[in-house]
Amino acid sequence: MDKELNNNPVLLTMMVITMLVIIIAGLKAASTLLTPLILALFLATLSASLINYLVKRGVPKFLSWLSVLIFIVSFIVVLGLMVSASANEFASKLPAYMEKLDLIVDQSMLSLGLSTEIDTEHFKNIYHPGYLLNYTVSAASRVGEVLSEGFLIVLTVIFMLIQRHSFVDKVKYLTEDDAAYSHFKKVTKLIDHYFLILTLFSTLTGITVYVALVLLNIDFALMWALAAFFLNFIPNIGSIIAAAPPVLLALIEHDPIHAGVVAFVYFLINLLYGTMLQPRYIGKGLDLSILVVFLSLVFWGWVFGPIGMFLSVPITIMFKILFESSEKTRWIAVMLGSGHNRVLRRDVKD
């Protein structure tokens, strides 16, 4: 059978495609169960990075574990409550926002002289900008539902952290080549570093967005700050997605000038953190093609919903690093990359 597959690349390709379709269909069908587990995996990776950082700074290991677990539990509980409350309040005000937005669309088409050439109602049914606000409500509600399963997520994070070191020992046992094991540790360290620094800058982005929107008198500043925090994990296009709803809301609540100011503030925040500071600490060896970023956003968002969109790039980054670790799969990492580098340029010391 193996010889037949090797001699028949068409049959082999068809089998691989069939397996991929089955796996993707299974992931989609089990998304309700898998989404909290994937979020737990992300939190466990982040927690491990924080624990390692505290231990290296001289904090006792038990105290590091306890502090990080308390932080994770508080984070899930508080975040779940804030997202659910904000989503419910925003949903209650959505009809009023949509009504104001209808007037803006009607006035804009009238002033541009398009109302006589284009059916206004037909245009709004297809291209209504309010769809963005509708999706915001549904996405926030979905995130709140996932975070409401906090007990399952916390338990999974704890068990993953407990098994972390034993998993490394198992890899060492299965790997006869010391160089391969050393490279595995290097890859693990690189992933930890990436998540830790990116989470730090995402937090700074969220705080800055919250303060700016409060000063600009934009409703639901906390919800937009949380969105900026999550979407900062998506390079290149995450900041654009995060800025769109508050800019639209500023247009509804105030005027085009106010909306322009909000857009400019988001541009400055992204320029400061995303373009100037963040790459200096993360390095450019983890760059992804903007097409890969967009496709991973669409794919993982389709499979796992808003949480999948949030985790799409971290998941892809992990795959890219793993593909980079082997000569046989390095070509895949090159295809996923931005084209500026073929290997990891950031050297992480052991």
Task: Outline the structure in words.
With 350 residues, the protein is an all-alpha fold. The protein has one domain (2-336). It is built from 14 helices and no strands. Helix 10 (238-253) runs antiparallel to helix 11. The longest helix has 51 residues, at 61-111.
Short description:
The chain is built from 14 helices and no strands.
Task: Describe how the helices and strands are arranged.
Elements: H1 2-7, H2 9-29, H3 31-56, H4 61-111, H5 120-127, H6 130-147, H7 150-174, H8 178-215, H9 221-231, H10 238-253, H11 256-282, H12 290-304, H13 306-324, H14 330-336
What labels describe this entry?
single chain, 14 helices, mainly alpha, globular, 350 residues
Number of strands: 0
> How many domain modules?
1
Q: Ends: how far apart?
A: 44 Å
Which strand-content bin applies to the residues? under 5%
CA radius of gyration is 23 Å
Number of helices: 14
* Uncertain spans: 341-350
Order of helices and strands: HHHHHHHHHHHHHH
Structural class: mainly alpha
Percent of residues in helical segments? over 70%
Largest sheet entry:
none
Task: Choose one word for the global shape.
Answer: globular
